[in-house]
Amino acid sequence: MVKIVSKENGKSVYDDQPNAHKKFMEKLDACIRNHDKEIEKMCNFHHQGFVDAITELLKVRTDAEKLKVQVTDTNRRFQDAGKEVIVHTEDIIRCRIQQRNITTVVEKLQLCLPVLEMYSKLKEQMSAKRYYSALKTMEQLENVYFPWVSQYRFCQLMIENLPKLREDIKEISMSDLKDFLESIRKHSDKIGETAMKQAQHQKTFSVSLQKQNKMKFGKNMYINHDRIPEERNETVLKHSLEEEDENEEEVLTVQDLVDFSPVYRCLHIYSVLGDEETFENYYRKQRKKQARLVLQPQSNMHETVDGYRRYFTQIVGFFVVEDHILHVTQGLVTRAYTDELWNMALSKIIAVLRAHSSYCTDPDLVLELKNLIVIFADTLQGYGFPVNRLFDLLFEIRDQYNETLLKKWAGVFRDIFEEDNYSPIPIVNEEEYKIVISKFPFQDLDLEKQSFPKKFPMSQSVPHIYIQVKEFIYASLKFSESLHRSSTEIDDMLRKSTNLLLTRTLSSCLLNLIRKPHIGLTELVQIIINTTHLEQACKYLEDFITNITNISQETVHTTRLYGLSTFKDARHAAEGEIYTKLNQKIDEFVQLADYDWTMSEPDGRASGYLMDLINFLRSIFQVFTHLPGKVAQTACMSACQHLSTSLMQMLLDSELKQISMGAVQQFNLDVIQCELFASSEPVPGFQGDTLQLAFIDLRQLLDLFMVWDWSTYLADYGQPASKYLRVNPNTALTLLEKMKDTSKKNNIFAQFRKNDRDKQKLIETVVKQLRSLVNERSSQRSL
């Protein structure tokens, strides 16, 4: 229901009035009637004007029809006249459209032409293998040109083709990198050789100074003609400098040997492509593989120096390339990477050198290996790689070098000993005398005063050995060069290696020589004389080393040469061998003895074998006059004691069952000759009858049997003043039993003679007493 609100007061017409609806309708009808009246008045007011207007329109109607006809006619005429214009206008419109289209095409083509030109340039760069430029062109196309023409289909084709081109560039650049890696693998030895030559060239000046310094102190090396020739050193230095000048002209740089452009291009390409990490990983992985191949030595590398040189040059070439890459590229390799690679390589190198050098038996090869290691270390040190472990390895190789030197010089010493005639060196004139003196520091005023011809006391082996010891010192010194060690350390190394030569090699050769079967007594005597002179020459060897190193012998830590003990031990061995061979010779003569142990009467003269033995001993002891007195006396005493013991053993031999009194008397004649030989003083220096005491046991035993003085022996036994103090009861019993058996055999048919029966009874009585005495001594010893 619509709620009607009064305008006047804004209240609803129905509010608070009865029959409000009805009243409202009445008022509404009244209002309508009022409006109808007003409308009627207005229409009446305008009706006349409307009528007038209609009248006017009717008048105009005729004119309007005429005008219509005229307009229609005019329109027809215009239509006929405008047909040709319309045709021309359509042509003009069509031409204008074509012109507009042409202009649009030109504008679009002008927009596309730079794109096409850049793409054509890209193709040309790809054909010319200018891949880095091609990638830059692609960037320009994508960032600048393609957005202008992205709505065209040809542009979409180009856009789709660019990733393929990038992949092609990556593959091509990677192929170039592989070719580069293969090339540097093949040329590593040449690169390394060049780098090592450059390192040598850089050291030329310092090496020349070292040689000049050596010449300076070499001028004063005159210890008994132990001199380093100055002219020879100057010639060597001049020749060395000339070689260095020649090498300087031939030295090439690493860039001359290797074209690094593939690496640069590939690195730039991958950097532009945003894949630099992939390239770095691939490069490092491949180089590590190549490093393992380079570090793998040939199985026969130790046989020649060329094998070691090739091994070193390849390694140097590898790391020279890595160092170059490190400095000319940013991030491809880092210092941490090269250090890690070098530490890995260094461990492998040391292991390889330690293994292969152990097979080297030639000192010259070991020395060349040392020189190569020094050049190798100096070269890589110049490129910033730490090489201290290589110099530590050189000290191990130095010990091996000394071992090979010792083995070589052992052969040299053996040859010298084999060629020696073991007789004093004869000198017939002054020239020969000076030659010997120039080789060996011998000083003897008495010999100098003697007239020619004369003889040196030593044999030819002595100066030869002395010269070879100096040569050994020179050879040992060669290894110490370029090791960056002080003169004190070099002096210590020289002295220690020389001590090894003396105490081990020369001593062993001397001992082996002394023990050889063909070395006789005369040779042994000469060996003792030789060792005496070699021992005296040791002080000159010390002076020789001092002049080389300029280190005084008075320095606290200076090692002394052990020649004194070495040659003393050799002399003791030779002396012992003299005693042994002399005793063997005595045994040979004694074995020639042919006694008739059952003879009834002696021959009246000494046995022939014994006289030959005594004559031999006299001649031998004449040779011993050149030996020190104590040695000759000891040899003489040892020979007499051994002869006495051999004769005693002959009497007491268990295989000898019977001995007659005639045989005892004959044996006594032989012992008398021995005593006469001892009393003749075959070797001077014995006091009184010292040498005769060697036969005292035999003498007392034979006197006991010759005078048959058993009562005195038994009565005085055990007394300090006993006449037969040296006679052992066992010895007397053994010999008496053999004589008892002989008496029984000889008296089978003469047992009824009173004298023989008495003698037999006396022998039996003495035998019983001796047995009782022996048993008593045995019981006392057991207690």
Automatic annotation (TrEMBL):
- Name the GO terms of the biological process aspect: intracellular protein transport; vesicle tethering involved in exocytosis
**Domain Exocyst complex subunit EXOC6/Sec15 C-terminal stretches:** 390-738
Classification via InterPro entries? EXOC6/Sec15 (IPR007225), EXOC6/Sec15_C (IPR046361), EXOC6/Sec15_C_dom1 (IPR042045), EXOC6_Sec15_N (IPR048359), EXOC6PINT-1/Sec15/Tip20_C_dom2 (IPR042044)
One Pfam family from the UniProt entry? Answer: EXOC6_Sec15_N
Exocyst complex component EXOC6/Sec15 N-terminal domain residues are 27-196
Q: Is the Nuclease keyword given for this protein?
A: no
GO CC terms in record: exocyst; plasma membrane
- Which UniProt keyword terms apply here? Exocytosis, Transport
The protein's job, in short, is: Component of the exocyst complex involved in the docking of exocytic vesicles with fusion sites on the plasma membrane.
Family, similarity comment = Belongs to the SEC15 family.
Q: Write the protein's name.
A: Exocyst complex component
Query: Which lineage?
Result: Eukaryota, Metazoa, Chordata, Craniata, Vertebrata
